[in-house]
Amino acid sequence: MAVVRDLRILLRLRGFRRLLAVRLLSQGADGVYQVALATYVVFSPERQASATAVASAMAVLLLPYSLVGPFAGVLLDRWRRRQVFLYGNLARAAMAAATATLMVGGAAGWLFYVSALCVTAVNRFVLSGLSAALPRVVDDERLVMANSLSPTAGSLAAFGGGGLAFVVRLAGADSDAAVVLLGAALYLCSALVSLLMAPDLLGPDRWSAQPRLGAALTGTARDLTAGVRHLMAPTRRRAARALAAMTAMRFCYGALTVMVLMLCRYGLTSSTGAGLRLLGLALGFSGAGFFVAALVTPWAAGRLGPARWIVVCAGSAAVLEPSLGLPFAAGPLLVAAFVLGLATQAAKIATDTVVQSAVEDGFRGRIFSLYDVLFNIAFVGAAAVAALMLPPDGRSATLVVMVAVVYGAVATAIARYARL
Known about the structure:
mainly alpha; Growth Hormone, Chain: A
């Protein structure tokens, strides 16, 4: 396979191997940690989970990406990136261990969320640093290949870490704290692997001129505002509409995620273990949908055009989501997880294509930073709305119908206004 051949070529580069190892261990730990938090909030026998608690956990996991993300690059251009990986992962290991202690000690909820928030906030710096450091260990000829394979490998590591967390939890770990400590151990390993690289290997160059920190931060805010103005120009409205459509579809996916969590915990199972198994299956089916989307979207978007493909994805979700969701049964739930995973990821890939083709090169970084903010805030906002609408067992026909209406509105709007 071409992917295996490309990876074999890259792995001959020692710097790339070590940077990839840092990524795999770090994102694997992220997967472990995120699943541990979710199961602690929803499936701990000593806790009475609620949709509000789920929404709070999602805010803790995702809001740092939105608030810190656009400004992370300002600091990464001042700090040695190898040191970011070393001290960032050491800090996360220590904070994850503190989170485990809070779990065992039954500390106040707000203190637990503050600890978890600190862990996830550091993650934005590490992920941005991994991307920024890649050109320092790969030559220009292989950079596109590395940019394609490295983030994909990291995503698979995060998925694998989440699966490992489920296995450990179902295999009889006494508490979610034990799973969090596993994540802490992986963060520590990632920090230790970073020591195999020289402190200055990953940059930035010390002699590069940098504006003062305050000026850089305010400049970043101005740049984001300029990016919004650029996006709203008449010639780029199709990119703005695609972003709006993706934000609405991400909202739908977030609301349904909260519903699935509550159904797995109370509505469709009679025990914590059965609920965890059903949730693991649902996540696996959704992940399979993401994978299939990556396979079919290049062909489908090439035949139909990205905008028409978004219409197909949103329209299919509008039709299939209520028919699969309203029975509130395990079998249709798993099929729905696959369908909505496929539709959401396929639409995202198509949106990326529209934005890349419609936005000028000098503004793409800022637009994608804005994209990241919208993507995560929509998910958190959806969790908050679901928390207000869902009953304790997660069975809400009103929420299912509302989501179907939003999907249908997205399909109608893009079909009407986008350049098809």
